[in-house]
Amino acid sequence: MVNILYLCRTILANQKIYNMLTPKDKEFLASKNISEEILNRQLEQFKTGFPFLKLAGAAAPGNGIKVTDEAQQSAYLKAWDEYLNGTHQVVKFVPASGAASRMFKNLFEFLDGEADEPDTDFIKTFFANISKYAFYDALNDACVVNEGKPIEELIDEGNYKAVIACLLNEEGLNYGKLPKGLLQFHAYDDCVRTPLEEHLVEGALYAAGKDGKVYVHFTVSPEHRPLFEDLVAQKKAEYESKFGVTYNISFSEQKSSTDTVAATIDNEPFRNDDGTILFRPGGHGALIENLNDIDADVVFIKNIDNVVPDRLKDPTVRFKKVIAGVLVTLQQQAFDYIRLLDTGKYTHEDLEKMIRFMRDELCQRNPNLKNLEDTEMAVYLRQKLNRPMRVCGMVKNVGEPGGGPFLAYNQDGTISLQILESSQIDTNNEEYVKMFKSGTHFNPVDLVCAVKDYQGRPFDLPKYVDPQTGFISSKSKNGKELKALELPGLWNGAMSDWNTVFVEVPLETFNPVKTVNDLLREQHQ
CA 85, CA 91: separation in Å to the nearest integer? Predict the structure, then answer.
């Protein structure tokens, strides 16, 4: 009876939304390839919200996080080298959308503020070390062109804002509107490099196949794509010559169909001043569609700003290979078990081995497994083994932002490893808050993924998304409050139903650039 009532309410709600839509609305939805059913579902989510996840505990070494010793690392390095010598296609996937405006938030505040001289520690640090930035020479040239004076003269005159304007504004370097991937991050004796270039170098060092081909894919915004393509055209041959490889570099944009509707405080569609319904980008979780379109056996995923100069790359390269070796080793064992199950010639002892593999290596726990008959157990094991797999690097928690590694309950009652954000945890549950605060590790977005099955067929990745792991945030437009809907994050809920393994990696493999002054850290000098 309850289900019938719920169904009736849903039908009435959908009919209400349908009646609210004008012919122009329907045409607009069609142009974005968004169905009215999806629109209705998203508006309903604003009303119902998203459930918090049920936690079994924080992952830690010995309880969900694998810590490797030298001998194990050597074995995994060998496994990865052997894999690269096969016929597999490996792709490096780099989310690179969005402008770097948040990186310069403090500089914008100074530029728009009343103070003419540095008035905060951040701004004082910026100017005291300005010659240490890789973009110094380019900025100096911009100052000469726009102001007729070099940086040092402008600073001596107290004209600090002119320097920042030349850095951020369109008539200068336009760094306030460019994406991070195109900013000059690192200075070398003979050149400067952008994050895009550093990712090309990384790809050559751990993702080149035996034919010397390196596949790198960047997700970019439409307005920045020509700039990325121009930089690749300028630099590709240089790095091919330097590293003896051939690059296959591709780009994609976040699909319009993954945008989410904005809602009013009353959970109605938020409309722009011209009457059109406002849709917003659905967050990095939308990129599961882009990932799904890539033809690859193994995909590395890493954020655009987590790069270091060549002199510091060794730990990054080593542990990228280590976690990739873990992935292909576990994947091969899973494939062997699936093939055995498909023959039907397995024993109860074989099933027990598979259960131990699921429990000890993949951290999959099922409290009800002991109640299953062998045939039921075989069906269950095959279903759990035949899924996308990812190995995620985890670094020790030293206060940097990042998703936390947890053991969480799934909708089918099983327990598995998940990367959770604070928004997914019930802050009224003291036990869960304690788990989150006492976590020993966090995820720096360091993933390597296996996205094809044992027969070489690609998994349909959107099928493994947990739609109940999105979240709602408060935003505004033109002074009006609105609610925004974030899709399940790419390495959070969008990969919820994958087989997941956590491996500890050194902290020196994580060097993000969240503010411009992070470029002054020793890791970026």
Answer: 15
Residue identified by tokens 């993000």 is: 512
Task: Report whether 180 contacts 513 (CB < 8 A).
Answer: yes
Query: Could you tell me if 319 and 506 are in contact, meaning their C-beta atoms sit under 8 angstroms apart?
Result: yes
Q: DSSP states of 92-159 as a string?
A: EEEE--S-SGGGGHHHHHHHHSS-SS--SHHHHHHHHTGGGSTTHHHHHHHHHHHHSS-HHHHHHTT-
Q: Which residues contact 384 (CB under 8 A, 6 or more apart)?
A: 358, 364, 414, 499
State the residue range of the domain holding 391. 55-99+211-524
395 closest CA partner among 292, 510, 259, 495: 510
User: Do 198 and 185 form a contact (C-beta atoms < 8 A)?
Assistant: yes
Task: Report if residue 31 sits inside a domain.
Answer: no
Inside any domain, residue 193: no
Unique residue bearing structure tokens 């045939």: 375
Which CATH number does the domain housing residue 393 bear? Answer: 3.90.550
Same domain, 216 and 266: yes
CA–CA distances in Å: residue 218 to residues 93, 252, 283, 300, 304:
6, 7, 16, 12, 9
Distance, CA of 214 to CA of 91 (rounded, Å): 7
Question: Per-10-residue mean pLDDT for the chain, 525 residues long?
Answer: 44 49 89 91 91 91 95 98 96 91 94 93 97 98 96 96 97 95 96 98 96 97 96 97 97 94 92 91 92 97 96 97 98 98 95 95 90 92 97 85 82 91 85 85 92 97 93 86 92 95 95 95 94
- Total domain count, the chain: 2
Is residue 250 one of the residues assigned to a domain? Answer: yes
Based on the domain organization, do 374 and 487 belong to the same domain? yes
Contact 305, 445 (CB under 8 A): no
**Do residue 292 and residue 168 come from a single domain?**
no
Distances (CA, A) of 34 to 25, 39, 97, 188, 525: 11, 7, 21, 47, 46
pTM comes to 0.92
Angstrom distance (rounded) from CA 227 to CA 223: 8
Q: How big, in percent rounded to 5, are the helix, strand and coil portions of the chain?
A: 45, 20, 35
Q: Please give the helix or strand (H or E) that residue 321 lies within, else none.
A: helix 313-343
Both tokens of 418, joined, read 């998940």
380 within some domain: yes
Based on the domain organization, do 75 and 130 belong to the same domain? no
The alpha carbon of 468 is separated from its chain's Cα centroid by a whole number of angstroms, namely 18
